[in-house]
Amino acid sequence: MKKAIYATLLLGLTLTLFYACASTTGRTAGELVDDTTIANTIRAKIVGDKELSFLKINTDVFNGKVTLLGVVPSKQAEEHLISIAQGVKGVKSVTSRLTFQTK
Q1: What's phi and psi for 63, nearest 5 deg?
Q2: CB-side exposure of 13: number of CA atoms within 13 Å?
Q3: Looking at residue 57, what DSSP letter applies?
Q4: Cα–Cα nearest to 100, from 84, 83, 77
């Protein structure tokens, strides 16, 4: 009986937090989770890529729209990063705000 009461209270608290999250940002908890999953997947692919793993690239995601920020050594590296991001499930668009490294 106590377990059922605790489970009900926990469920109520969880739903309240999800509702509060959606009301403050205008987005549902599911949308936030989707964007976080997309960003983490892109980051993992960058870290796993031998040519790009040394780069510090920020991946901002909002409603499936990815923005890449950072410094890259070449246009080829930028195109490769964009290609990686575009290949992730749930990505609607990719915007590059990458800058090129000066020598």
Answers
A1: 55, 40
A2: 6
A3: E
A4: 77
For the record, the structure tokens of 73 come out as 């050594």
Residue from 57, 65, 55, 56 nearest 88 by CA: 65
Q: pLDDT of 38-63, one tens digit each? A: 999 999 999 999 999 899 999 999 99
CA distance 67 to 46: 14
Place of tokens 């290609």: 83
Listed residue (24, 30, 55) closest to 42, CA to CA: 55
Rounded (to 5) percent helix, strand, coil in the chain: 55, 20, 25
Domains in the chain (CATH in brackets) are 28-100 (3.30.1340.30)
Q: What is the 8-class DSSP label of residue 1?
A: -
Question: What global pTM score does this model have?
Answer: 0.69
